[in-house]
Amino acid sequence: AQTVTQSQPEMSVQEAETVTLSCTYDTSENNYYLFWYKQPPSRQMILVIRQEAYKQQNATENRFSVNFQKAAKSFSLKISDSQLGDTAMYFCAFMKHFGNNDMRFGAGTRLTVKP
Amino acid sequence: SQTIHQWPATLVQPVGSPLSLECTVEGTSNPNLYWYRQAAGRGLQLLFYSVGIGQISSEVPQNLSASRPQDRQFILSSKKLLLSDSGFYLCAWSVPGSWNYGYTFGSGTRLTVV
After folding, report:
1. Residue B100 to chain A, least CA–CA distance (Å)
2. Which of B32, B99, B107 lies at the smallest CB-CB distance from A97?
3. What's the pLDDT tens digit per position in B10-52?
4. Rounded to whole angstroms, what are the CA distances from B76 to B19, B58, B106?
5. Is B102 within 8 Å of A106 when comparing Cβ atoms?
6. What is the distance in angstroms between the Cα of A77 and the nearest Cα belonging to chain B?
7. Which residue of chain B is at minimal alpha-carbon distance from A96?
């Protein structure tokens, strides 16, 4: 079974600074997908960024980028120029390439952006 | 465009009472549907998923059940709630075979069992 580990329960960052959230996963699959979801106080889950394991190039979405290290099974999220609206729970998630699209989530990291 | 509706938003139920949470998806056909539970301060636990009408897979043995009576309707039920059933329940859908798009989530139901 696939497991996803987020070792940082809480983090904080000053507004406009950069922060990196860690995620590691365990799988015997070769093809899979990785995701970062954001859950603000409203509790709505919002997809931040996704990465296909067969692509070596790290995904980027505006201020959000990932550092995907397939051999190390690591998938960290970097948030640049942090904004107050980035305050949220961030969940790392894993999905196999073949299967029923069931996604496995880490326990989450609570990020607070301080003014 | 596709939308997902989940209700009720909040629910307070006594121990031993029944439960019915409903989720519907619009704008797509034959979606994969999921129920997750999020305990306070914790990650998301997959409870059930469905790849078609009447097809339900359970991930965690418990006193909850799920049904899919229509293509775009997914219901989470219980005959008798336990205190441990309290949590935040999220419904989600995905396009079958389109793994790279991830899930679209509903707005969630906060269930408190008292």
Report:
1. 6
2. B99
3. 999 999 999 999 999 999 889 999 999 998 767 899 999 999 9
4. 8, 11, 14
5. no
6. 17
7. B99
Residue of A nearest to B57 (CA): A100
User: What CA–CA distance (Å, rounded) separates B49 from B34?
Assistant: 4
pLDDT digits (tens, 9 = 90+) for A57-92: 999 999 999 999 999 999 999 999 999 999 999 999
Q: What is the pLDDT of residue B61?
A: 65
Q: Are B75 and B84 in contact (CB under 8 A)?
A: no
Taking contacts as CB-CB distances below 8 angstroms, the residues of chain A near B88 are 43
For residues A70 and A56, give the distance between their C-alpha atoms in angstroms, rounded to a whole number. Answer: 8
What gap in Å lies between CA A35 and CA A49, rounded to an integer?
6
Reading the block at residue B75, the tokens are: 């219901």
Alpha carbon of B74: minimum distance to chain A alpha carbons (Å) = 16
Any residues with CB less than 8 A from the CB of A107 and at least 6 apart, and which?
A5, A6, A9, B42, B43
